[in-house]
Amino acid sequence: MLGYASGPTVGAFLLAVLTQRARAVGTLIGMASGLLATLLASRLLGVAWTWNVAVGAVVTFGVGWLASPVRPQEARA
Q1: Cα dihedral across residues 62, 64, 69, 70: positive or negative
Q2: Confidence of residue 69 (pLDDT cuts 50, 70, 90)
Q3: Interatomic CA distance for residues 67 and 19, integer angstroms
Q4: CA distance 1 to 61
Q5: pTM of this prediction?
């Protein structure tokens, strides 16, 4: 079960570290998509369990990057 959650976690980490575009809402959408993609890939497509982290991380990063707004983050007072 940890393999299903590890991919979205790694993807969210990479999204935050490697881009300045990541926002909370976009990252959460990406993580939900990564978890769903991992579950679908293993259950429906028969992808081996060893690929769970890779599938979840790639989908989370991609969807999170696309779902995050382009506008700069507002400064908090």
Answers
A1: negative
A2: confident
A3: 13
A4: 20
A5: 0.87
- CA distances 57 to 27, 34, 73, 75, Å, are 11, 7, 24, 29
CB burial of 16-53 (b: ≥16 within 10 Å; e: otherwise) equals: eeeeebbbeebbebbbebbbebbeebbeeeebeeeebb
Write the single-letter amino acid at 45: L
Task: Say if residues 33 and 63 touch (Cβ distance below 8 Å).
Answer: yes
Q: Estimate the crossing angle of helix 2-18 against helix 24-43, to 10 degrees.
A: 140
68, 45 contact by CB (below 8 A): no
